[in-house]
Specification:
alpha+beta; Immunoglobulin-like; five-stranded mixed β-sheet; four-stranded antiparallel β-sheet
């Protein structure tokens, strides 16, 4: 390396001052100038061609375009959970928000990164818990601070009227008639429409789920065949059709409600012999599919209904 630098310095001096005169004699010892008539050895290296540059390695932690699991959209349950947690509805919305958030987080975790909405579900869970705890606190305060009614043992004041006088009875003014107003009963928009098995539920064309119609034809009895240890499974025969824009959810949002009130999301276990509809698979525009969805739950649970959530109009098909 040092010889190469000295060679460059000699070349630069020769270029600027010209070669040394041959009449001056040989260079003194230790001089950096070459002797007259000396030739320079060719360099052992060469400059890179014009436009050449060192390759830049890709940044760590990033995948090239086209890699990674494809996104299937945001979880409808996560959106419903956040909306219900904000609406509150005297604690009912908060309770539903917590349930939907737990189901949504479970589905997002099982999707392997293909389904978005974890932040929405987490926010709905936190706000729902705060709203439910606040409702319980207000109910407790109201129960302990009720107004006291007069006791029957209290002595009422008496009025003595002389016998020689006739008591005067004050005339009371007539009570005005208050007009009555009939208030129509407004149905809770978040309560599901309960249908019988085999009945089709139709959704609006612009429903956020992208679905157009849903139906549950039949539900098997609980069985331990194919179920994890200590659990049972049921299989629901369903049919779904997407709207004109398709549905990113497909048959993913079916859920099972037990008589205890617990709500269970779909299981990944397939039917042993029949067609099982996939989870988190997009359904094309106006496309329909028919098959089975599975649910696993603890031994002894009694199924009550199969529902489809994440839509503006919720449907539930009664089992028993």
């Amino acid at each position: 390396m040092r010889e190469w630098q000295e060679q460059l310095e000699r070349d630069e001096l020769v270029r600027r001052l010209g070669p040394p005169s041959s009449t001056t004699g040989p260079p003194p010892p230790g001089s950096r100038y070459p002797p007259p008539g000396a030739t320079y050895p060719p360099p052992a290296w060469s400059y890179p061609p014009p436009g050449w540059a060192y390759p830049v390695p890709p940044p760590t932690g990033h995948l090239p375009p086209g890699y990674g699991p494809p996104r299937t959209g945001t979880s409808g349950l996560a959106i419903a959970s956040l909306v219900l947690s904000i609406v509150w509805l005297l604690g009912v919305g908060s309770l539903l928000a917590v349930i939907f958030a737990i189901i949504a987080l479970r589905q997002i975790g099982r999707s392997g990164g293909r389904m978005a909405g974890q932040g929405l579900a987490t926010a709905g869970l936190v706000i729902g818990i705060v709203g439910f705890v606040g409702t319980a606190g207000l109910a407790a305060i109201g129960a302990t601070h009720h107004p006291t009614s007069p006791s029957l043992d209290q002595t009422l004041p008496t009025v003595t009227v002389p016998l020689s006088t006739t008591p005067t009875v004050a005339k009371t003014a007539p009570v005005p008639t208050v007009p009555t107003v009939t208030v129509p009963v407004v149905r809770n928009p978040f309560a599901p429409h309960v249908l019988a098995l085999g009945t089709t539920g139709v959704l609006a064309v612009n429903d956020p789920s992208g679905m157009r119609s849903l139906v549950v034809y039949s539900v098997t009895s609980p069985t331990t065949t194919g179920a994890p240890v200590g659990e049972e499974m049921i299989y629901a025969d369903v049919g779904v059709c997407a709207g004109p824009n398709g549905s990113p959810e497909g048959a993913s949002n079916f859920g099972l409600t037990l008589k205890s009130g617990a709500t269970i999301g779909r299981a990944y276990t397939a039917h042993p012999t029949l067609t099982t509809l996939p989870i988190a698979v997009e359904l094309g525009p106006n496309a329909c599919e028919h098959g089975y969805v599975t649910f696993d739950f603890g031994t002894g649970g009694v199924p009550a209904s199969v529902s489809y959530i994440g839509t503006d109009t919720m449907y539930a098909w009664r089992i028993s």
